Amino acid sequence: MLLAGLACACAAAQGQDRSTPAPEARILIERGKALLGQYQCGACHTIPEVPISRGPVAQPLDAWSQRSYIAGRIPNTPAMLAQWIMAPQALVPGTAMPDMGVSAEDARAMAAFLFSLE
């Protein structure tokens, strides 16, 4: 997401459309979307644009970028979301969100996609 944010900031500085991420950021976002499908996050969550993600167990992940907190208590930033995706039990012991064995690189991509959801 940092990459996406930087890309948008650079685009704005150059007078370009801020809603269109730079190609590198778009690749990261698309990779994150694919990873959410591969890790089967949709078994619990409804996630826009991710096939077969109609999970009724956890809250839907639409408009993620508009949220203030993760799990109702962690500030919603791209870095904190990536940490949450990697090790939710370390941040909120006893949370229903399981540790999925997500790498730091994959978590950053997944966070980039979720923060692209407005």
Automatic annotation (TrEMBL):
Keyword Iron assigned: yes
Stored Pfam families: Cytochrom_C
SUPFAM superfamilies in alphabetical order: Cytochrome c (SSF46626)
InterPro entries: Cyt_c-like_dom, Cyt_c-like_dom_sf
Keywords, in A-Z order: Heme, Iron, Metal-binding
UniProt entry tagged with the keyword Iron: yes
Domain Cytochrome c: 27-118
Entries under Gene3D superfamilies matching the protein: Cytochrome c-like domain
Name under which the protein is recorded: Cytochrome c
